[in-house]
Structure formats: C-alpha cells, structure tokens
Amino acid sequence: MTKIKEIRCIQTHRLRSFCIRHDYFNAGTNEEYDAMFELVRHGKGYDIDIERLRQVAEAIREHTAFPELTDDVTVGDIMAALAREVVEYYYEEDDE
C-alpha cells in the first residue's frame, strides 16, 4: 500500500504579504520581524510542523497591536489563517 506524506511549506515572501494584508506585526521592531522570518528561512520553512507554525503565530500575536474590536484574536486564529493563506501543501508517495 502506498503511504502519503503531507509536507507543509512557508515561504518568507508569502508570510510577509500575509502580515501586510492583515496589518499584523505592526508593533514589532525590525529585529523582531527578522527573528520571525528566521523561523521559516533557510529551509526551516520546508516541512513545517505544527510547533513551528505555532511559534510563527505566537510571534505575530505578540507583536501586533490589535484595534479594540479585534483584541480577542488568538494564536489559534492566526494559525488557521496561516494554514489557509500562507502554508503550501505538497504530497509525497512512499511505496514501502
């Protein structure tokens, strides 16, 4: 039976566009912004696991000044949005 492996990838340009589109990371420094990108840069964004996705979402949440009405945006909300809008999915077959 063929096994299928799901591979999740995040590219920095897609992450940057996501933050701009949603006005995320509007309260962080350039160094903090770069640190978030380091989580997915240089091959670290290939086959991203749920823990790495959580770290990216936490960095976004921590460095975003939300307007009063959207104050309740959670890390889980950001993770779901990242999964929909930023993460690219690939599938590999393993014939073992």
What does this molecule look like?
The chain is of the alpha+beta class and 96 residues long. The protein has one domain. The protein is 46% helix and 15% strand. The chain is built from 4 helices and 2 strands. Strands 1-2 form a two-stranded antiparallel sheet. The longest helix has 13 residues, at 50-62. It is elongated. The N and C termini lie close together (7 Å). The model has no long low-confidence stretch (mean pLDDT 91).
Outline the secondary-structure elements.
Layout: E1 3-9, H1 12-22, H2 30-38, H3 50-62, H4 75-85, E2 88-94
Antiparallel strand pairs: 1-2
Q: What structural class should be given to the helix and strand makeup?
A: alpha+beta
Tell me the count of domains: 1
The strand order across the widest sheet is 1-2
User: DSSP strand (E) fraction?
Assistant: 5-15%
Q: How many strands? A: 2
Helix content: 40-55%
Defining traits:
alpha+beta, two-stranded antiparallel sheet
Q: Concise description?
A:
By secondary structure, the protein is of the alpha+beta class. Helix content is 46%, strand content 15%.
